[in-house]
Amino acid sequence: MTITITVEKDGYYEGNGMRHEPTVSLYIIPAASKLRRMLRDTRDLIVCPGVYDGLSARIAMEVGFKGLYMTGAGTTASRLGMADLGLAQLHDMRTNAEMIANLDPFGPPLIADMDHGYGGPLMVSKSVQQYIQAGVAGFHIEDQVQNKRCGHLGGKKVVSLEEYMTRIRAAKLTKDRLHSDIVLIARTDALQQHGYEDCIRRLKAARDIGVDVGLLEGFTSKEQASQAVQDLAPWPLLLNMVENGASPVITTKEAEEMGFRIMIFSFASLAPAYLGIRSALMHLKTEGIVGTPEGLGPRKLFEVCGLMESMKVDTEAGGDGFADGV
Ligand SMILES: C[C@](O)(C(=O)O)[C@H](CC(=O)O)C(=O)O
């Protein structure tokens, strides 16, 4: 059966000879659909810097990245002041992701860390539903045990393939039930404990359930990274580049040549923030002044955070809050 739908200029559409009111916005493309289309319609590597709060996300958008990645390590460090040891819960992760994903409705899609899904299949389902409702475009879910840790630390443990697949199935079923385009990314941390072949087995099992993208965490060599792309082709793979972590340094150019489709840089904002803040505070301690470069006053920082757009909204609505500027 062929259904022809004609969308009219006013957004109404015709179907079965009748005019229908649009039930979905024709103007804002959901971030999940945007990301899905980027994966499907281009061959480009989608580069997503890791962001962990509103300011780091705003900076990444100012620089013009086409995608963003919300790091769980960064979220845990900035919201809880703790190390990436499975301490952030669904609430911490979802509220952070929701804020970042909604900073600019026309902005870059956000891929978010979902750790192990925060529990059994029921919790995974709840997590997926909340990420969808938060406007997250894609997320990765892994096979580490509940007492998880950063993928670039030693001593990681993973659950059995069977248990991991219950998480994956719960995620896929929830996505389908909610008719969401959210991009599912299966991550395996099994390399340390079980070796490369087991990782490929786990990722293939996730792929066969209908997961969109694979992530093998903690490659130990460039050859291994390249091999994984070939072993799983044409299934798209995501590369997590953590400089000074467990893996060799791989640039975006090299990742693109290897055939990766998405690349995240988990510590892209967190490490420079540590260096920048520490150096400024050391200066304050020793010199009695922060020493902020000229031009970097409150106004500049607020501009990065949408000052002009906010003023426009008020003025267009007839408000006089900014009649005399700021
Ligand atoms: C990708 C990751 O899950 C993250 O939280 O950003 C971390 C990054 C890290 O802690 O090195 C991970 O790789 O486990």
From TrEMBL:
Give the superkingdom in one word.
Eukaryota
Q: Which reaction does it catalyse?
A: (2S,3R)-3-hydroxybutane-1,2,3-tricarboxylate = pyruvate + succinate
Membrane-spanning regions, if any? none
Show the Pfam families listed in the entry: PEP_mutase
A molecular function GO annotation: methylisocitrate lyase activity
Family named by the database record: Belongs to the isocitrate lyase/PEP mutase superfamily.
The protein's matches in PANTHER family, at most eight in alphabetical order, are given as: PHOSPHOENOLPYRUVATE CARBOXYLASE (PTHR42905), PHOSPHOENOLPYRUVATE CARBOXYLASE FAMILY PROTEIN (PTHR42905:SF2)
Q: Provide the protein name.
A: Uncharacterized protein
Tell me the lineage of the source organism: Eukaryota, Fungi, Dikarya, Ascomycota, Pezizomycotina
